[in-house]
Specification:
Layout: E1 2-5, H1 12-18, E2 23-27, E3 30-34, H2 36-56, E4 62-63, H3 69-75, E5 76-79, E6 83-86, H4 88-96, E7 100-104, H5 112-120, H6 122-133, H7 146-177, H8 179-188
Pfam families: DDE_Tnp_1 (PF01609)
Protein name: Transposase
Transmembrane segments: 149-167
Length: 189
C-alpha cells in the first residue's frame, strides 16, 4: 500500500491509472483508500447491472415500473415519468471512482494501515450485533430500571462471548481432528 499525504484530489484519478497498487491518502480525519481488488469488484458489479438493463430494455429504453432502484440512482437518465435509458456520462463518472472508499475516524494518532485493518474487521462486530439481536434475542427487553437494563445487556453480551468462544473451539477441534472430513466421507458412501 502506498501512503500519500496532502494530495490534490484533481490528480487522484490520474494517479490511480498510473499506479496499480493500493493507495491510502490521509485528509484530516478522513482516509481515502484505493484498492485494486475493489476496483475489479466495482467494475464487475456495474457491468452486471448494465447487462441486466440491456436484457430488459427495448431499443435502449426501459419503463420506470421495470427499473430497479440501483439503475435509477447510478446509471439512468429518466425521460419524463415513463421511461429511463442508460446515461453514459454517469457511467464514465462512476467508473473513475472504481476502487475508492473512504474511512472517517475520530482517532487522530492512527496510521492508514491500522485504520484500514480496523475497518476490515468491522464485519465481525456487525455479525456480533446480529447474533445478539437474533440468536440471543437481546430484544425485546421487559425491564425498566437502569440497573436491570444494564444487567440484561451485560448477560446477553456475556452469552455472545461464550457462544462465539464455543464455536471457535468446536471449529478448531474439528479442524485438528479431521472429524468433518471423516463424517463427510461416511455420508458420501
Amino acid at each position: 500500500m502506498i501512503i500519500l499525504l496532502n494530495l490534490d484530489w484533481s490528480n487522484l484519478f490520474e494517479l490511480k491509472t498510473k499506479i496499480k497498487k493500493d493507495i491510502a491518502i490521509f485528509l484530516e480525519n478522513n482516509l481515502s483508500i484505493f484498492s485494486s481488488s475493489k476496483q475489479t469488484l466495482d467494475k464487475t458489479k456495474r457491468q452486471n447491472l448494465i447487462n441486466k438493463f440491456e436484457k430488459k430494455s427495448i431499443n435502449g429504453e426501459l419503463p420506470l415500473s421495470a427499473l430497479v432502484p440501483e439503475y435509477k440512482k447510478k446509471y439512468m437518465h429518466v425521460d419524463g415519468k415513463t421511461v429511463g435509458r442508460l446515461n453514459i456520462e454517469k457511467i464514465k463518472k462512476v467508473a473513475n471512482e472504481d476502487g475508492f472508499y473512504m474511512i472517517e475516524t475520530n482517532i487522530t494518532n492512527i496510521d492508514s494501515k491500522e485504520a484500514n485493518e480496523i475497518y476490515k474487521g468491522q464485519w465481525k462486530v456487525e455479525e456480533g450485533f446480529r447474533t445478539l439481536k437474533s440468536a440471543i434475542e437481546v430484544r425485546p427487553m421487559y425491564v425498566y430500571k437502569d440497573e436491570h437494563i444494564q444487567s440484561h445487556v451485560f448477560l446477553c453480551f456475556l452469552s455472545l462471548i461464550v457462544l462465539k468462544y464455543c464455536i471457535y473451539k468446536l471449529k478448531k477441534f474439528y479442524k485438528d481432528n479431521g472429524e468433518i472430513q471423516k463424517k463427510s466421507q461416511w455420508i458420501c458412501l
